[in-house]
Protein: ATPase
Amino acid sequence: MGEGMTADRVLAIDGGNSKTDVLLINAEGRVLSQVRGPGASAQNVGLPRSMEVFGGLVRQAAELAGLPAGARIATHTAAYLAGADLPKEEDELRQAIDSLGWSTTTVVANDTFALLRAGTPDGVGVAVVCGAGINCVGVAKDGRVHRFPALGRISGDWGGGGHLGSEALWLAVRAEDGRGPWTALLPAVLRHFGVDSTAEVVERLHFGELPMECLHELSPVLFEVAATGDALAGQVVERLVEEVTVLATVSLRRLDLLAEPVDVVLGGGVLTSTGETVVAQVASRCREVAPLARIRVVDLPPVVGAALLGLDSVGAGPAAELRLRSAYDARQPPADSIGLAAGG
Structure:
């Protein structure tokens, strides 16, 4: 492990709503260790708990890489986090991470920037993520940035797995009680929860016996029902296609990229799990507005994008990027804890 011990190191953190990935690499792009833990968005669990989760995972990554206790873990920390939606939040998170002394320098930004970097050779273009929530960022070649607050309905958002799941339940409830037309979502929701009536689901949610987060589980149910030709489920999927398209094209327009060859990166669990159902339609509609746009579904997890941004910050060259991309098999996501030998 000597080479990994002496080289500059980058500590990359992808802090999502449902999971946190930590990747420790050296400046040559060699993976030293990687770990996965629970989601710890400061917006959801609070800043102290968020730092507690991140801290535990970072210590674990350092131990797996063979770093001595108390040693500075990295030259640079690249933390791209869900919940870092506004400059104030980014500043608070960066100060909190800085205070832990993991590295000499630290960058904190929204995790959608990591998705963009993972799906592009230079971090230039537009990225739309649809996972637990939905967000979009755009970066022009001259460094101009366009982004949305992404704070939910209060900031104009529509979409995300939780939102889609709640729409599915809403339609099923109304189909059952007569306020809405029948939809195949009703029996599908009942089967999913193993109940005889949506009233049981509503009551359990109301009393906290089921967490509201479980509504995310209904997102794939929605797509399955839509694929059978159900009209109401299909309307929700159509609305998502329109929203993803609008996010991407508004960013392209604001950055004056409509007539440029530009990457539009799509990612997040909802988008990547729908196959061509959403992606093909988004690609077609985006090209109506931006004919030269290249629509790509990201094939690397966002933590690799965070690490690539970290390599950019320490001045690593193309060989380091190629080594990291080649070493990371996105088809085999990390287990809860994996230690990889330096130089691998």
